[in-house]
Structure formats: structure tokens, C-alpha cells
Amino acid sequence: MINASDVQIDFNASGNNEILQNIQVILTTPAGTVPFDRDFGIDMSILDAPIGVAKAKLTVEYTKKIKKYEPRAKVEKVSFTGDAVSGVLIPQVVIGLVS
User: Fold this and answer.
1) Over the range 39-49, which residues count as b (16 or more CB within 10 Å of their CB) and which as e?
2) Regarding the domain delimited by 4-97, which CATH topology (the fold level of the hierarchy) does it fall under?
3) Which candidate, 87, 95, 35, 88, places its Cα nearest to that of 65?
4) Domain residues of the chain, as ranges?
5) I need a labelling partner for 99 at 20 to 30 A (CA). Which of 2, 70, 84, 87 fits?
6) Is residue 8 within 8 Å of residue 25, measured between CB atoms?
């Protein structure tokens, strides 16, 4: 599992490592924070929605953004852990490679 605080950039990454690193950057970047491409990253306002709505919208957002910014990969599955009582939502995104 990748946490945003664990992001380390390898400028020499290649092959599958490059693809996974690119996805990591996409999923940990808030949309609107990248100059000249304000659509890059994930819309963090989704996290203010009720848990069920947030899960659905995040699944769509992850799928859409990975397809747009890393076309060598596709989202196979998105699942979530955490609980609504504490307001914690932890996504797990399973990626497949496009051949």
C-alpha cells in the first residue's frame, strides 16, 4: 500500500516501475495544484461527501484520471477500508497493465 507521505520520486524509473510511480503521483496529487494542467490529480472535494457517495465518486475519478494520464495502465478494482463513524476512508486501487 502506498501512503502519500511515502512518495519517493525515482527519476530513472522505467518499465512497470515508471507506470506505478506515475499512478502514485496521479493519486496523491490534489487536482488544481499543477500549473498549466489544473485537471491533473484527484478532486479532493469528493472527500467532503457522505462515505457512500465519496466511494462512488472516487472510483470514477481514479479510473478517469489513470486512463487520461497513464494510458499504459487500467483500473481493475477499487475497494475501500475504514469506517464511517471516524470518517476514515482508505482506498485500495488494483492496477492492470494495458498491452
Assistant:
1) ebbbeeebeee
2) Nuclear Transport Factor 2; Chain: A, (3.10.450)
3) 95
4) 4-97
5) 2
6) no
pTM equals 0.86
Q: Which of 22, 19, 56, 16 is nearest to 41 (CA)?
A: 22
- Burial class from Cβ neighbours inside 10 Å (0-12, 13-18, 19+) for residue 91 reads middle
Residue 6 and residue 28 in contact, taking contact as beta carbons nearer than 8 Å: no
State pLDDT tens for residues 45-72. 999 999 999 999 999 999 999 999 999 9
Considering the chain, what is the average pLDDT of its residues?
Answer: 90
28 and 39 in contact (C-beta within 8 Å)?
Answer: no
What is the residue type of 65?
Answer: K
